[in-house]
Write a structure and sequence with these properties.
By secondary structure, the chain is of the alpha+beta class. The chain is built from eleven helices and 18 strands.
Length: 377
């Protein structure tokens, strides 16, 4: 009888051309045990990571994105779930605002754009550079942005993502956008023995709980906070109205409440939502693991007192170590040239960004939509 790990690996290899992994992985607590009081984990040295070559799927456009080439690239993307398109031949201006015919051929035309409520419905303000392209969210360049599914903090999410590079980092200086196969990541976790199997079962039963706070405009630490204020997010300065709007937003929040702080007459609007950890893809009927978030530090004003939980429980040190190992082991990506494109299936893959130094500019587009709850269609 095949083990769950073997079955997952066989499917991953068959469907994703994934590299084989050993059936068992030792759990190394080093990245967790070596962390400071202010942070919960420390990843390996940046420069050592930047020099590592990792697998990636590539389609070479050979200098021109013709209709036939884009159709072939899109078909390959649908088969693989993540694809780098190189040598696109796009000019500098086209790298900032991708031509509409290119977006349409690759499945990101205006009619297919992910419409999730506009500029006032998210935790942070979206910065659009055209009707279909936006800037990627800011994140400290010295930090590794761990793998995640885009907009995994509400019940509906984009089905696919497009990233295009207009200003690449120098090779060896980091900044690559990685794709992470959900099947490979689940297989790695399952290969970590009883602790890995228990973590997957915990995820299936409890799902992901995300707690996020929106500070008051008058909060003394608001300038250090990277989320929007509750006044901006919910479009009112009236506390009762803000709570009412939040409670009506059932696709984005399960519950909300005011959190007071000693000596501060500016309460924070705390929100909470629980999302299933696995999503059945209607295209193939398989369950795909969504990517659990790991908080770099504890809940504080600057991060909106946010917490990432499995059910109602914090990740243990062992669970955190397993996930970090799985995330590093499943990186797929490459150093970009200007005009290179990455397509990512937001169900079958997560994506991440390694730390970097120097200039870097990546723009993004989101298309399609799926519900995280299989019963909601």
């Amino acid at each position: 009888m095949k083990t769950a790990t073997a079955e997952i690996l066989q499917q991953a290899n068959a469907n994703q051309n994934a590299a084989e992994y050993r059936p068992e992985h030792a759990i190394d607590l080093g990245m967790v045990e070596s962390a400071s009081d202010d942070e919960r984990y420390v990843l390996p040295d940046n420069r050592a990571q930047w020099a590592q070559d990792v697998p990636n799927n590539v389609f070479d456009a050979e200098g021109q994105l013709t209709a036939d080439k884009m159709a072939a690239a899109y078909a390959r993307f649908q088969d693989l779930g993540a694809l780098n398109i190189i040598n696109t031949g796009l000019e500098a201006q086209e790298q900032n605002d991708v031509p509409m015919h290119v977006l349409e051929c690759l499945g990101f035309g205006e009619k297919e754009q992910f419409k999730w409520g506009g500029l006032t419905s998210g935790r942070t303000n979206l910065k659009y550079i055209s009707r279909c392209m936006r800037e990627t969210d800011a994140y400290p360049e010295e930090k590794f942005l761990l793998p995640h599914n885009e907009i995994l903090y509400q019940r509906f999410m984009p089905e696919r993502l497009l990233f295009i590079c207009s200003q690449p980092t120098k090779k060896g200086s980091g900044g690559r956008t990685f794709a992470h196969c959900a099947l490979k990541t689940e297989a790695y976790i399952a290969g970590c023995g009883a602790a890995g199997s228990a973590l997957l079962e915990k995820m299936r039963k409890g799902g992901f709980t995300i707690e996020t706070g929106f500070l008051d405009d008058a909060h003394p630490e608001k300038s250090k906070n990277y989320f929007r204020s509750w006044q901006d997010r919910f479009g009112t300065a009236d506390r009762d109205e803000a709570i009412a709007v939040c409670k009506q937003s059932t696709h984005q929040f399960d519950d909300c409440n005011w959190m007071a702080e000693d000596g501060i007459d500016a309460p924070t609007l705390m929100t909470r939502i629980n999302i299933p950890a696995f999503k059945k893809d209607p295209r193939d009927g398989r369950d795909y693991m969504l990517f659990p978030r790991i908080a770099l530090d504890g809940p504080k004003a600057h991060n909106g007192y946010r917490r990432f939980l499995i059910g109602d429980a914090e990740l243990t040190k062992t669970e955190t170590a397993i996930l970090l190992q799985a995330f590093l082991a499943t990186r797929e990506g490459r150093y970009y040239n200007a005009g290179d494109i990455l397509l990512v299936d937001n169900i079958r893959y997560g994506h991440s960004r390694e730390s970097f130094e120097g200039a870097r500019k990546i723009h993004a587009s989101m298309a399609g939509m799926f519900w995280t709850d299989d019963a909601v269609q």
